[in-house]
Amino acid sequence: MTVDKNKLAWITGGGSGIGKALAIGLSGLGWHVIVSGRTESKLKLLSMEHSSIDYLVLDVTDKLANVKVFDSILNQWGSPSLVILNAGDYTPMAAENFDLDLIHKLNSVNYLGVINGLASALPAMKAAHKGQILIMSSVAGYCGLPDAGPYGATKAALINFAESLHIPLKKEGVLLRIVNPGFVSTKLTEQNDFKMPAQISAEKAAEKIINALDNDSFEITFPKRFTYIMKLLRCLPYRWYFYLVTKITGK
Q1: What average pLDDT does range 22-48 have in this prediction?
Q2: What is the CATH number of the domain that holds 158?
Q3: 117 phi, psi to nearest 5 deg
Q4: Residue 4, CB-side half-sphere exposure with 13 Å CA sphere
Q5: Which domain covers residue 87, as residue numbers?
Q6: Looking at the chain, which terminus has fewer C-beta neighbours within 10 angstroms, N or C?
Q7: How does pLDDT run across 102-155, given as a tens digit for each residue?
């Protein structure tokens, strides 16, 4: 296949949810997409259904495997102009069920897994002085919420890390951006036992992200009617914040 290198994308966590919807959406717009994930059967089926989608199996928690996968992309197709570090996991944890193993697991996937992917992609993109990297975070990273501690902390770490790198990387021609969605319908959010306000489909989330690729804003966040309320909450004095969170969540 002849690849247009200006439309070559790599997506981690591409076998389901937002990652899969992004791969299909970009493919429909003429992109050649490489998806990665742990479950080969999902990736293979996606690739069989879409001729412009290829796959490479990857466990993002494996630092060396990230480098090998990105090197394979470079050798077979060239340097991607778009990297979406989307792989993530979620399990709620109530304070009375404090689970250290779960905290380590989510940190390994959601935070260090993203850093592993970033480290593998950056050298080639910096050398080319071009490209866009999207880090999938969440509005859960804006402020601490009941039962979301292990997950929210990883997303807060991603936001902070991306903020620290955005300006220096932009000077080198690489646009590093953060994606902070609200509630998106996926297998992960099906675990929630509460009504999720302003919930949208994975396909709608992918559409929002793809539509934002042409601007250079640091943050992509949606749906704004919900995410901007979350932004406001994090600006409040803690006394007001904890009062409102208790009233809203009942916890």
Answers
A1: 97
A2: 3.40.50.720
A3: -65, -40
A4: 8
A5: 5-249
A6: N
A7: 999 999 999 999 999 999 999 999 999 999 999 999 999 999 988 889 999 999
Residue pair 197/211 in contact (Cβ under 8 Å)? The answer is no
Could you tell me the end-to-end alpha-carbon distance of the chain, in angstroms, rounded to an integer?
Answer: 54
Count up the domains in the chain and report the number. Answer: 1
CA distance 112 to 110: 6
Closest-CA residue to 175 (of 187, 184, 166) = 166
Contact, 15 vs 46, CB < 8 A?
Answer: yes
Q: What is the pLDDT of residues 65-117, one digit of tens each?
A: 999 999 999 999 999 999 999 999 989 899 999 999 999 999 999 999 999 99
Please list, in sequence order, all residues whose beta carbon lies within 8 angstroms of the beta carbon of residue 83, skipping any fewer than 6 positions away: 9, 10, 11, 117, 121, 125, 131, 132, 133, 134
Q: What is the mean pLDDT of residues 173-178?
A: 97
What's the sign of the alpha-carbon dihedral 66, 68, 70, 72? negative
Q: Which tokens in the block code for residue 153?
A: 């902390």
Rounded Cα distance, 26 and 245, in Å = 37
DSSP assignment, residue 129?
T
Task: Count Cα atoms within 13 angstroms, Cβ side, for 187.
Answer: 8
Mean pLDDT over each residue of the chain, to the nearest integer: 92
Task: Look up residue 140 and give its DSSP letter.
Answer: G
The share of the chain scoring above pLDDT 90, in percent, equals 82
Instruction: Sort strands 8-12 and 32-37 into parallel, antiparallel or unpaired.
Output: parallel
Burial class (CB in 10 A: 0-12, 13-18, 19+), 27: buried
Which residues touch 71 (CB under 8 Å, ≥6 apart)?
120
- φ, ψ of residue 138 to 5 degrees: the values are -175, 155
